[in-house]
Structure formats: structure tokens, C-alpha cells
Amino acid sequence: MRRIPATVVAVALLAITTACSTLSPPGEGTVAQPRLADTRPVKDGGTLTIALKSDPDMLDPSLTSTLVARTVFSSMCEQLYDVDQDNKFVPQLAASMPRITNGGKTFTFTVREDAHFSDGTPLDARAVKTSLDRHLHLRGSGRASEIDSVKKVSTPGKYTVRLDLKHADVPLLGRLANTAGLIMSPKAIRTYGRKFASHPSCVGPFKYVKRVIGDRVELTKDPLYYDADKVHLAGVTYKTITDGNIRMANIRSGDVQIGDQMGPVEVRGSLGEKGITLLNTPSLGYMALTLNVGNVHGIDKKPGRVDSPFGRDVRVREAFDLSLDRELINKLVFQGMYAPACGPVPPGTPLSSPVTCPGRDLPKARRLLKAAGVKTPVPLELMINTTPDDSRLGQVVQAMAAEAGFDVRLRPTEFATGLTRTLAGDFQARTGGWGGQPDPAGNIDSLVGTTGSNNQGKLSDPEVDRLIVEGRSTTDIAKRRDVYRRLTRAINRLHGVIYLYRPVNYVSASTDVSGVKLSGDGLIKAKEAGYVKGSR
Fold first, then answer.
1. More exposed terminus of the chain, fewer Cβ within 10 Å: N or C?
2. Mean pLDDT taken over the chain
3. Nearest-angstrom CA–CA distance, 198 and 366
């Protein structure tokens, strides 16, 4: 844990500002035109190495809670449905779009008849039921609250699955196009139980070989994959390299071919560089600062009340929110290449409404602290990841909050350790992101609902819970848009999750590689990737 003196922070901010002006080409905040894929012909063979920003948590679809794990799953574990590059839902392991009947309370679909898991087990309706039941009932499952509308999973035919719901749940399709739709081998589930992450088996273009925690995950081409003819690579290796500059250096040296979650500094430094290309898509997610207001005994327990100024009084949380300048954070830390965020709904999507972010208001922040009767400076330990971007973000937040009367102490924490502490409730505040889903329910329900399995700070509010149910219950776009507008306001009034910025999905790639796709939700798809004919 450390507190950086204000003079040091001021020098750091000046250095960051200077770097921005030095690296920014004409047209502040602009980058190369968005590229989603490269379609040059490729040859068969070779291993693709993808550098990840952080080490994945458990490679278990029921228990995982990280975007980097989803990135690995995109090569080895297919979902019932997927999100294409236009953010539209398409069948993947499902063979059809769902048929929704009984007033939205019955959800029926068929599954592929030509697929096998990597352990040889055939995919059928019963295999899907096994995975969905596990998502629902496994202790500690991160999927349980995501599909908690499901009352019963049945298999009326060998390849037909029916979900009977407790109530209409319009966003359910979106969740089945995300981690809750990942289907595991029933044989592997029976054999390994909670140790599935050490022996994962799914349907995918590649299958699991081994993992070295903190270093790499190795996959090899799965000859049983139903679409194996389109898979050119012999394997894919995911290597953990937390520093973006080192990820970029490894691309330049040829040790790595793809750099995931590249930051603005690295992206700007490589624009126009021979041998490196850029893929990018707008993000459906966000980065936020989560305050622990109710996670007393762990994320899987009922909310309590954290006995701290932040846990006791919303005025203290609002004052902290008002101390932050989102526009300046974006400029100083990310060179203006991201966008300020003050809500969970992705802008430009059908259910979004314009949201005006609160401006920085130091006089009001100080008045709120005085009214709350707290002694200043108010202490707060802020857990951040051990990356250069997170360090810069933490320093800027620390400096801004100090001017309002807060003493923010930074605790840089390795990603996996930080996640473990967060789930246990062993934190006061933390920065963290959410990869995002096209339907706003995927960005809200499990993250701020009282029973949400990803509600890290255990925020609990009856109005938020009521609006979450209302948002699930109607198919009318105008009505849902209004619900999520009101829901965003209700969440923001609690100041328990302080939305900071919306990133752009930047992926840097060697020009020796083609066929890599970047989905609308920011996942790297390596299924049809390969080395360009004539390359090394």
C-alpha cells in the first residue's frame, strides 16, 4: 500500500500531459480507421501466440469472471449463441434462433447434430442441459444470477432444449451469447467436478493442452471440431504479459503475433509502423471504480453494511464522485482515445439514451463531506492492477480526490490476487472493467442487482432491483429504453459504482498473420487465422 505525495503526483501528471502532446498526431483522439479482420490467404500450420494483459482466472465457464478467460474460451469453448461484428446474435452451438412462446416464458431451440467435445463426447440436448444446470446450481457459480429466470431445463428431443422460465426474460438470449452460453463436456463435468478448470473440455477449433499459471495457456487444433477444415493453425498459445510496452516489443521481435487490450500509448507509438497492423472496435463495456458498501462476508453472501465513511453515508461517496474529472482522466491517462462514461449502457445501441456525466465540483464535494460530519482527509485504500495504465489512472484519481478532502492510498495488486480479495470482500475500493454485452441487462443485472453474482461491492437497492425486473419483462424497445434510462439514474444516485470511461478495443497484430477477427464485444477470434503465405 502506498500514498504518493502530491508533489510527485503533480510531476507525474505533467509528464503524462507532455507525453500526450508529444505522441498525439494531428487530430487529437483519432486513430486509424477501424479494422475488424484481415482476409489475405493463409497457409496451414504454425502456432499463434496471443499476449494477454492479465492472467486468466479459472478456465471454468461456471466460475470464471474475467474477460481474459473469455478470450481464451473463444478458441476452445463455443457458446450456444455468438455476437457477430455487427453486434447481432447468431447461432453457434445452437442450430436455430430460439422460439419464444407462452408469453415469453418458454424458450425453445435446437442444437447442432455434427459437433463433438474435445474428449469425444457428442453434443446433444442432454449435454446442454448438464452445463446449464451446472451454471444454475454449482456453488459459487458466476452464471447463476445471469440465468436465474430459468426454472427448468428439459430435453423434449435428442437435439431440442426447452427452458421454462419463472417470468419473461427478454435479455436471456444475450446471456446465452456470453459466458452463460458456454457448454462443457458432460463427461468432463462428471469426471473432474470443481476441478474442471484443470481439465477443460468443450467444443471449439482448439483444445486444451496445458497451463502454466501466470505465464501461458497452450491449445492445439482439435481434429474433432465440426468446422476443422477452416482451422489453419496447429495451435494457439495465450501468454500473459501485463505491460503493454512489453507486449508491443514482443510483437516487433516476432515472439508474439497478437497483442490483446493494447493501450493508447502503445497504439499511438505503432501507428504506421511497418509490420504491425491495428484492429479496433468500439467497446460495449466500461471501466469503473467500485466502492465496497456491502461486501462484508464475500460475494456469495447477503449484503451487509461496511463500517466505513463510504459504507455508512452516500454523501461521502457522492463527494468522491464529484472530485473526479472524467474528461481530464481520459486526456491525461489515455490521450483522449477513450470516452468518458457515467453509466453502464453502451452508447449508440438501440436501448441507450443520452447521459450527461456530472462535472467536477470541488465546492459541492467539500460541502457534502462537511454535512456528513466526517473528519478530513477521508482515508480510502484503492486497489489497482499492476499495469502502467492502471498506475497512471490511480495516480490521477489520487491527486484529484485529494483536492476534495480524501486521502487515497494506492494498493497495486496482481490481477488474480486482486480478484480473490475482491470476491472475499477484502477491499475498500477497486478499479476494474466489464467487457460488455449488446443488451444493457448484461452490463447491469448481475453487477448491481442485490443477488447479482458479479456485484463486487454488494450494492443493494430496492428501486434498482425493481427496475432490473421491469427491464427484463417487456419486448417494447421504447419502454425498455426508458427503463434503462431510469435505471442508470438510480444506480448513479447510489455512487457505489462510479463509471469512469469507456475504452476502445485495440488489438495490435503482426502483418505476418491474417484471418484474425475482432468481435463486437472485443474478443479475438482465431478460428480462421493463420500465417500469410510467403511469410516466415
1. C
2. 90
3. 51
* Interval 303-329 mean pLDDT: 97
What does the pLDDT look like over 135-152, one tens digit per residue? Answer: 999 998 999 989 999 999
Q: Is the dihedral of CA 246, 385, 391, 273 positive or negative?
A: positive
Q: 410 - beta bridge partners?
A: 2, 382
d(CA 287, CA 272): 28
Spatial strand order in the sheet of 150-157: 99-101, 106-110, 160-165, 150-157
Closest listed residue to residue 426, CA positions, set 435, 434, 417:
417
Q: Which residues are CB-contacts of 144 (< 8 A; sequence separation ≥ 6)?
A: 135, 136, 137, 138, 453
Q: Which of 295, 290, 265, 362 is nearest to 31 (CA)?
A: 265
Does residue 217 carry a pLDDT above 50?
A: yes
The 10 Å Cβ neighbour count of residue 210 is 10
Residue 438's CB is within 10 A of a number of other CB atoms, namely 24
pLDDT digits (tens, 9 = 90+) for 376-434: 999 999 999 998 889 999 999 999 999 999 999 999 999 889 989 999 999 999 999 88
In one-letter notation, the amino acid at residue 100 is I
In sequence order, the 6+-apart residues with CB closer than 8 A to the CB of 367 are none
Reported confidence tier of residue 356, pLDDT bands at 50, 70, 90: confident
Q: Cell numbers of 53, please? A: 494483459
Distance CA(341)–CA(335), nearest Å, equals 15
Write down the pLDDT at residue 243: 92
Place of cell 484474425: 516
pLDDT tens digit sequence for 76-86 = 999 999 987 77
* SS3 assignment, position 207: strand
Q: Helical H runs in 335-476?
A: 362-372, 388-402, 415-424, 441-448, 462-472
Q: Give CB contacts under 8 A, 24+ apart, made by 138-143.
A: 138/62, 138/63, 138/194, 139/300, 140/63, 140/300, 141/62, 141/63, 141/453, 142/62, 142/63, 142/64, 142/65, 142/179, 142/446, 142/453, 142/454, 143/61, 143/62, 143/179, 143/180, 143/453
How far is C-alpha 447 from the geometric centre of its chain's CA atoms?
A: 11
Cell of 299: 460475494
348 neighbors 514 (Cβ within 8 angstroms): no
Q: In the Cβ-directed half-sphere of 299, how many Cα atoms lie within 13 Å?
A: 26
Residue 7 confidence class, pLDDT cut points 50, 70, 90:
very low
374's grid cell: 466526517
> What confidence score (pLDDT) does residue 194 get?
94
C-alpha cell, 308: 466505513
Indicate the pTM of the whole model: 0.83
CA-based nearest residue to 490, from 457, 456, 467, 458: 467
161 Cβ partners below 8 Å, 6+ apart? 108, 109, 110, 111, 125, 128, 129, 132, 153, 154, 155
pLDDT grade for 32, boundaries at 50, 70 and 90:
very low
Closest to 105 (Cα-Cα) out of 150, 153, 156:
150
- Cβ neighbors of 443 (< 8 A, separation 6 or more) are 284, 285, 286, 344, 345, 346, 434, 436, 437
Q: How do residues 245-261 score in pLDDT, each as one tens digit?
A: 999 999 999 999 999 99
